[in-house]
Design goal:
heterodimer; A: mainly alpha; 76% helix; 0% strand; B: 54 residues; 1 helix; 50% helix
Chain lengths: 505, 54
Amino acid sequence: MSTNKENWGSRVGLILAMAGNAVGLGNFLRFPVQAIQNGGGAFIIPYLVCFLLMGIPLLWIEWSMGRFGGKKGHHSTPFILGAMDKRAFWKYIGVFGIFTNIAVAAYYCYLESWTLSYVYHSIAGSFSGQSPEQVASFFGDYISLKTAEPVIFWILCLLLNTWILSRGLSGGVEAVAKIGMPLLLLFGTVLAIKGVTLKAGEDGALFDGTVGLNFLWTPDFSTIWTPKVWLAAAGQIFFTLSVGMGSIQCYASYVKSKDDIALNAMSAGWMNEFVEVVLGSAIIIPISIGYLGIDKVIELTKTGGLGLGFKTLPYLFQQWGPLLAALAGVMWFGLLFFAGITSSLAMGTPCMGFMQDEFKWGREKAAWVFGLVVFLLGLPTVIFFNEGVFDEYDYWAGTVSLVVFALAEVILFAWVFGIDKGWNEITTGADIEIPVIFKFIIKYITPLFLAAVFIGSLPDIVSKLTAEVSIYVHLSRLLLLGLFAGISYLVYVAYKKRVSENRFI
Amino acid sequence: MNTSALIMLLAAEGIVTAFTLYFFIKVLKTPPKPDTGVDHIEEDEHRTFRYDAT
């Protein structure tokens, strides 16, 4: 028997944990930048269409796959997929659901540790009296490891994640979500109100906060039929919901067999959308444009939202006076930290579930070994950040793997397992009536959308593979391949073990 | 703000906020299902291993 006896403590706790899994740094840093680069207010149209036709179906698919696997005692995707179809192939496709979580956690925890460190520096007043260039170079020095501080915060962050994971699902993950998500919503709301109520001439602001909102939401309808905009919208929906990772299946595998998943998935999914669309659009762009103007912000967002969040906002907060600057810094980096940790905790559970199910490991042992693996795999991203290792992990594990896995699982669910059985899984115990049109959407539209996203990303994959890269990048690719091969071997061993013990698959 | 930006903002944020509240309130208002005891692990019909793991 598996040593895994975890359970969710409450329905609200499960939803907050699932929403926390989806809400990440991208909700605040990536979404607004994607919107201004892809048609402004018009971006929301393809974005919401993609949510309806790809995001919601994928949420239902992954929740129901998880609960289906949980009924059979599986809490990680190799054997969840294996339970849906007897061909061995699917178990190895399921490896993605562990691989992605470990590889993403390896660099994501480092990113998360920056937010923790910036909370500390906001309280300590490190940015007080600094020029914009000094605040920006603080970040440059930080990631260049000019001091040991980034490594210390990273290890602290890893220890915190591992300790919480070792406390279990209801005592650790759920407890953090119950504290972190309300705080995230509170901090986000306060900063959003401050952002949109900025007044030109007050506290050094050049423009009203509404100028930024106006810029973000003014629709450019000429872009709406551009494939690039649709790909960007599909990509954003995909990454914001944390689908294609295997973590949703793992969380859902602890749902009781007769309990609802349809309403739970909707509630968690829409909560993520609220954080992204309502809060995410009202903080970074209105505040930045209020102080820097539209042209400067367009220039700064060309490299993404990370620079704006870490290099620019800490300086802009200083314009509000020492006390408010410290408070704003704590709230901004605090909300990013809660967004990060609720996601990174979700990355730990599939790996732990696998080791508990298949090798009878205890929860604490599984958590600490996960922490150790993430430490070893994450070390190159910390030491060789400037050599592109971090970006390489993000690209292969945090981008390509998700699309490949989601495409495979939707084919398995709708075409191999069968849409009728799949529909039955989704609707069993449902507390809402799901429009039957979604049966058609899941079978035909969602796979097409995913195939389009995958095909759309192929030129980029090819150019990545054919480009001249450094030895560090080659080594990081080898590490990721090695990780995938290692997990595949463990799945093979686990399968043989099951056969020898005459345990069902 | 110009009119088109305001319309897009209000429509998008209105839709998202309404659905978020609707589903979350529905979760809070839906009574829990009666606990039927221990959630037994289902076994497959026959414990047959017809396929290879390789």
